[in-house]
Each structure stands twice: as C-alpha cells, then as structure tokens.
Specification:
This protein has about 280 residues and is of the alpha/beta class. The chain has two domains: about 140 residues, Periplasmic binding protein-like II (D-Maltodextrin-Binding Protein, domain 2, 3-Layer(aba) Sandwich), CATH 3.40.190.10; about 80 residues, D-Maltodextrin-Binding Protein, domain 2 (3-Layer(aba) Sandwich). The chain contains ten helices and 13 strands. The strands form three sheets. It has a five-stranded mixed β-sheet with strand order 5-1-6-13-7. A five-stranded mixed β-sheet has the order 10-9-11-8-12, sandwiched between helices. It is globular, with a radius of gyration of 25 Å. The protein starts with a helix and ends with a helix. About 35% of the residues are buried.
Length: about 280
C-alpha cells in the first residue's frame, strides 16, 4: 500500500513538473510573439505613424505645396521608403522634440524620425535603427551659432563665460551644453525657429545647432554666423528610434535603410532636399 501511495505521489509530481514546464514554454512563446509582432501590427492596420519635430530643415520642415501646409525633408522621404517597403500608408505627427520619445513609449507613434542621435541615455529607453546619412558627409556634428556682429568677440568656449546659450530641450545639444558649456547660462527652447529669433533679438548670445541645420539657417540669414569653436560629439550619425523590444520593426527599418545606402538613393534623397532648401532660401 505504501509503495502504491509513493508511486501515486511520484506521478503527481511528474505531472506537476510537466505542467509547469509546458506553462513556462507557453509563456516564453507568448512573450516571443509579443516581442516580434510589432511589424505585423503595422501591416494589419495599414499605416505607419511616425513622430517628428518639423523645424529641422533639410531633415523635416513645413512647406506649402499646392496651397497646403506639408511636412517635407529627407527624413520624411526616408520614412516614405520605409512605409513603401512595408506596403502601408505613412502618417506624420508633428510635435516638440522633447516629447517625441514619450509619445513613442506611450504607443502614440510607431517610430521617431527627427534627426535624433542614438545616445547611451536614449538607448536605455528605446531601441534604434542603424545610423544613416550621406556616405561622403564629413560635416556632421554640432556647431555654435552667434550673431555675425559678434564673430570677433566669441572665439572660444571661454569667451562665452556667463553668456546666454540657447539649446533645444531634449536634444543632443542639451547634453553638450551641460558637459562642455557649463560656464554659460542655458535657456531651453522647444523649437529651432524660436532659438534663431531669440539670437537675433539678443535674448541669447549663442545657440547650438546640428551642422547641416546651422548651414541652412546661415544661408537664409546673413546676420547669423557659424563659429569654428570645437564641440565634441561622441555619438556619430542619426538613427530612427523604435519602442524597446520591437525587434521585427527594427529589422524591417534597417533593411530599408541598407537598401537606400547600398543603391546610392540615400545620398540622392539628402542632396535633393538640401537643394530644395537652398532654392527656397533664394526666393
């Protein structure tokens, strides 16, 4: 009888362990499915929603086309290629730069394309695509921009001690200001046109902009000046931010980016939009 009881208990233990194992396996499979269905969800709903901050020509900016306000730029053209490869429609949500990652993690957008640098801090919060840009571009980085009338005054970081510095809130420029220009009084703004206006109105003495963006504003406005004061940017290039764990979406995005770079279309997209901005500045 005791032997029979022991056999019965052993069977129960085996069944219990098997059940736990099966349950754990099911949970693992379910978790894997949840991690990998981000692309499938987008294809199912038939649209890719990107978040951007459209004040960053030639990357993303507003332009009137056929009487309608339209967001254009090379990041937008890249997003169109990503959506095309997915076989879905592209939708754009324009917002302040410092709210983009919050919107991504809240599920309000599927990805963020906004000239964003994949810093280590951001990598803790979201995943990123591979970096992208012109294959021959050696002008990447951040620049200190001042009024042209002050070009002989502000010639070094030390010369900006106790001066007012404007940076975009939530951007890489904010980190550079804290680490490399701690001798300045920093003003945080959400939009780049506001930074340019504050510079012109003497509300700030200098601003930090990405090199290509700075050049476009300098081409448009001969009262601002790009200094050669060196700023260190440890991270290279820009990337597309995607919600953490959305691996299939990251892979699909990387596939499109690699196609554009391998075919030389990336350079053409960027050059076409740089020319577009240059032509607009001439008018």
């Amino acid at each position: 009888m005791k032997n029979l009881f022991k056999t019965f208990v052993s069977c129960l233990l085996i069944l219990s362990l098997f059940g736990c194992s099966a349950s754990n396996s099911a949970n693992t499979n379910q978790q894997t499915t949840q991690e990998d269905n981000s692309l499938a969800k987008i294809k199912e709903k038939g649209e890719l929603i990107i978040g951007t901050s459209a004040d960053y020509a030639p990357r993303e900016f507003h332009m009137v086309i056929d009487g309608k306000d339209t967001i254009v730029g090379y990041d937008i053209d890249i997003a169109k290629e990503i959506a095309k490869d997915m076989g879905v429609e592209l939708k754009i949500q324009d917002m302040s730069f410092d709210g983009l990652l919050t919107a991504l993690n809240a599920g309000n957008v599927d990805m963020v394309i906004a000239g964003m640098v994949a810093t280590e801090e951001r990598k803790n919060a979201v995943d990123f695509s591979i970096s992208y840009g012109k294959s021959t571009d050696n002008e990447e980085g951040q620049k200190l921009v001042i009024r042209k009338e002050d070009k002989d005054i502000y010639t070094s970081i030390e010369s900006l001690t106790d001066k007012k510095l404007g940076v975009q809130k939530g951007g890489l420029q904010e980190e550079i200001a804290k680490s490399q220009l701690s001798n300045t009084k920093v003003t945080y703004l959400s939009k780049i046109p506001n930074m340019i206006m504050d510079l012109q109105m003497n509300k700030v003495d200098a601003i930090i902009l990405a090199a290509d963006v700075a050049q476009n504003y300098a081409n448009e406005n001969d009262k601002i000046y790009i200094t050669d004061i060196p700023l260190v940017q440890e991270e290279e290039g820009t990337a597309i931010a995607i919600k953490k764990g959305d691996k299939s979406l990251v892979n699909q995005t990387n596939s499109t980016l690699k196609r554009l770079m391998d075919d030389g279309l990336m350079d053409k997209i960027i050059e076409d939009n740089i020319k577009l901005v240059e032509d607009l500045n001439k008018n």
